[in-house]
Sequence to fold (324 residues):
Amino acid sequence: MFVSLNDAISLIQEDKILHIAADETLLNQLPKGKWIAGTTPYFITEQGGITCKDKLFVSEITCAVDYKTVVYEKSNIFDITKDAYPNGMTILIMPFASDVAVFYAKEAPNSDDLLMNPTVGWISGYDLSTNSKAKVYEGTTGICYDDKAVALHICLSDDKMASLGIVNIFNTDENDVKIEFIEDSLSVTKCFANGKEVILSDYIVENKIDTHLPLVADYNSVLVNVSIKSISEKNKMVDFYAPVFAGKEYRFARSVSNYEASFNERLQGFKDVKPIFSCNCILNYLYGELDGKITPPFTGPVTFGEIAYQLLNQTLVYAEIISK
Fold:
């Protein structure tokens, strides 16, 4: 629901369990209650993509038979697996570029326990035209953080279960150059291209690679993107929005002739999904020119990273509740 401040306050006062996304000027005015939130001024609504600072995107979690909210930091973020309900799901929000988000991004793929607990969420952000800072909010106290994560743990009835999904428009060609890295990192200088050591920034420039295209790797039969944040030709450094991992084989995604059309085509296979939560990447929003565009059946915050167990880029992530 894309609602006014007064409507959001009413839902909180009605004791609803809520996930909220909005500009911090609105989140600062919310009363205490059963909610968590993250900052962003970008949304995909039923009327289309929009940049807005006077409304909130609110998801009412009607499927919960019990709930708890927990604040985490870098030292205990993976306690989310201990705190999760045996039959449930967790919505996790972390501030962009915070220590806890960076640590989670690097370590989540190494957590076997995490795969046993449906964990979905997003990286909160800010208006790109400002020098703001991403924040998250824990509603029972009303406290906001720029250096901690918040989680809403949801308990489901015994006849229900959570199912997570990813919409990714990118693919690779097995004949394309294979890129490998020697360590897990968010920033790299050198890599191996088909076994030959190269400076990645030079390789990108020399091969005229479109940096709107992510690196893509197969993670347990799921294609996962790693998007390029910036390239410094001076320092020969390439920064990513999510870490690359040693031991993985990456390839640059195949070119997308029409970003918006490709995204809409991929959505056709998800018409029957009934999400209780979804979010879409800021890079999809910008590169796909989704301002004013709808992405049925998905609505929600536009984010600085998506979480489906691990940190993702340039994807749409969703959760739905299905019968066992």
Remarks:
- The radius of gyration is 19 Å.
- DSSP finds seven helices and 27 strands in the chain.
- The helical segments are 5-13, 24-27, 80-83, 99-107, 200-206, 259-267, 282-287.
